[in-house]
Amino acid sequence: MESWQGLIDSGYRRWLPVTDRTPSVSLNEGNTPLLRSRHLSDLTGCDVRLKVEGANPTGSFKDRGMTVAISKAAEDGAELVLCASTGNTSASAAAYAARAGITSAVLVPAGRVALGKLGQAVRYGARIVEVAGTFDDCLRIARDLADHHPIALVNSVGNELRLSGQQTVAYETVDALGAAPDIHCLPVGNGGNITATWRGYRTFHTAGRIGLLPRMWGFQAAGAAPLVHGEPVAEPQTAASAIRVGNPATWQGAVDARDESDGLIGAVTDEQIFDAYRLLARKDGVFVEPASAAGVAGLLDRHDRGLLTPGQTIVITLTGNGLKDQDASLRDGYTRSRPARPPPKSPARSPTRPWRQ
Ligand code: F0G
């Protein structure tokens, strides 16, 4: 079998806005596992599948969009790529820019990014600017800079290329299941991923690859749920730092995905998010970052309230890898005990007949 070469070269070139002139800047992203969750399936009476996006090269779904965005930036001769981020976009942008030999700069909210993500951006060589403000402030500054300087902005806003790459998660899901699921659950922050996933299903529907479309169920953290309230949140609050977004840039796209699919965008509390975060690790052996558990939290919330019909096929995008946020893991229910003393050394044993000692 030929080995996987990434989304552009192996997977979905014909569905991506690339040409023969576009260099393929890839880390062999995509082709991530779609795991059946026995626990969630038994609990809900549905067939629940987990799309493990933390298996991407920089540990999140962002790599799907970034291979396209940076490949096009390289084709256009960009010298600097810029993004605002709660962490994962910056890690991904920095990695793909490094691979393309392009300088990257990232704007992140100071003190509000998981250290693993910051560590990635540092190691990949990004110029890092920590902003005393929220992610929304970072995005505003990034857009302003890109408007006035020759910079390639690789946030999904103003960069449809990112979204077209992220559509591939729907293509892979359909190719694995042979159809669309009944419901696709995922966390929502800036709104790009729900928009892209829905567009992916619609693209395959228009092309005749699927008959029925899924319902899109997006979930925001209760303290950062502007799409649920219908208005921006000035000071978004949640321990799930990746989705601490108060004014989603792809607002309309997210609302369209919800409405066109007859779906929903709901809120889950941090407690529900962390319950799901623990459950995924303990019952399915999948370690995600807290924000990534929001889709599972939302599904369980619907189930608990009797709003889930059994017998459906449900795909949940697990957006990022738990290794990125060890602080969250160690803060949550791990108390360090005093280190145990090693036993005293026993006398040397005979190498030939150890059992006689
Ligand atoms: N899950 C994770 C792990 C994320 O990093 C993000 C977004 C989302 C879910 C939500 O996706 O924004 O497309 O609705 N992270 C962005 C970032 C904001 O900068 O890394 P969305």
Automatic annotation (TrEMBL):
Residues bound to pyridoxal 5'-phosphate: N88, G189, N190, G191, G192, N193, T319
Annotated ranges, domain Rhodanese: 81-124
CDD domains: Thr-synth_1
Enzyme class: lyase
Composition bias, Basic and acidic residues: 326-335
Cofactor(s) needed by this chain: pyridoxal 5'-phosphate
Any one GO MF annotation of this record: threonine synthase activity
Annotated keywords: Amino-acid biosynthesis, Lyase, Pyridoxal phosphate, Threonine biosynthesis
Keyword Amino-acid biosynthesis: yes
Catalysis: reaction(s): O-phospho-L-homoserine + H2O = L-threonine + phosphate
A Pfam family the protein falls into: PALP
EC number in record: 4.2.3.1
Pathway where this protein functions: Amino-acid biosynthesis; L-threonine biosynthesis; L-threonine from L-aspartate: step 5/5
BP term (GO), one: isoleucine biosynthetic process
Residue positions, PTM N6-(pyridoxal phosphate)lysine: K62
InterPro entries with a match to the protein in the record: Rhodanese-like_dom (IPR001763), Ser/Thr_Dehydratase (IPR050147), Ser/Thr_deHydtase_PyrdxlP-BS (IPR000634), Thr_synthase-like (IPR004450), Thr_Synthase_bac/arc (IPR026260), TrpB-like_PALP (IPR001926), TrpB-like_PALP_sf (IPR036052)
Superkingdom classification of source: Bacteria
Function as written in the Swiss-Prot or TrEMBL entry: Catalyzes the gamma-elimination of phosphate from L-phosphohomoserine and the beta-addition of water to produce L-threonine.
Membership in a protein family: Belongs to the threonine synthase family.
Protein name as annotated: Threonine synthase
Species of origin: Streptomyces alboflavus
Gene behind this protein: thrC
